[in-house]
Automatic annotation (TrEMBL):
InterPro entries in the cross-refs: HIT-like (IPR011146), HIT-like_sf (IPR036265)
Recorded family membership: Belongs to the HINT family.
Lineage: superkingdom: Eukaryota
Gene3D superfamilies per the UniProt record, alphabetical: HIT-like
Catalytic reaction annotation: adenosine 5'-phosphoramidate + H2O = NH4(+) + AMP
Keywords (A to Z) from UniProt: Hydrolase, Nucleotide-binding
Taxonomic lineage: Eukaryota, Metazoa, Spiralia, Lophotrochozoa, Mollusca
PANTHER family: ADENOSINE 5'-MONOPHOSPHORAMIDASE HINT3, APRATAXIN-RELATED
Annotated HIT domain residues: 17-126
Protein name (database record): Adenosine 5'-monophosphoramidase HINT3
Keyword Nucleotide-binding in record: yes
Molecular function per GO: hydrolase activity; nucleotide binding
Span of the annotated motif Histidine triad motif: 109-113
């Protein structure tokens, strides 16, 4: 698949809300973690006590468009999200990590949801972030999918 302008790694899209937040260019937004091209900030509609979004600072469109070569990026997002959650006092074993699958994503910028604890999720949130549904996939499912593309 040939990537167009918005999909090319290495670019920051000024029209993309998550590009602006991740790069400190969105007034009123706070990046909680920033290192090696990855940023973490709070979800504006938290599904649980802790709900973070882990994003690449350079624009990557969505999980459906990822290829084999992108598996390492997804693994880095997961590792950063898990380490950040632990530093916030959370337990990875009680967290949900995953991605909304197009067309059920609200922002077309790759973002990993880190939600903890899942036991604090309400009924609606548990549906919105239901693992391995048509609309939400776990990080491990996505990594497996990408690794099988070779």
């Amino acid at each position: 698949m040939d990537r167009q302008n918005e999909d090319q790694p290495g670019q920051v899209e000024i029209k993309c809300l998550f590009c602006r937040i991740a790069n400190g260019q969105q007034p009123g937004s706070q990046v909680m973690y920033e290192k090696n091209g990855i940023a973490i900030f709070k979800d504006i509609r938290p599904a649980a006590t802790h709900h973070y979004l882990v994003v690449p600072q350079k624009h990557v469109n969505d999980p459906k468009r990822l290829r084999y070569e992108d598996a390492e990026l997804v693994e880095r997002l997961v590792t950063c999200g898990q380490e950040f959650l632990v530093k916030q006092g959370g337990k990875v074993s009680e967290a949900r990590l995953g991605f909304h699958w197009p067309p059920f994503n609200s922002i077309s910028h790759l973002h990993l949801h880190v939600i903890y604890p899942t036991s604090s999720m309400g009924w609606v949130a548990s549906l919105i972030f239901r693992p391995d549904s048509f609309w939400f996939v776990t990080a491990s499912w996505l990594i497996d999918r990408l690794r099988k593309m070779k």
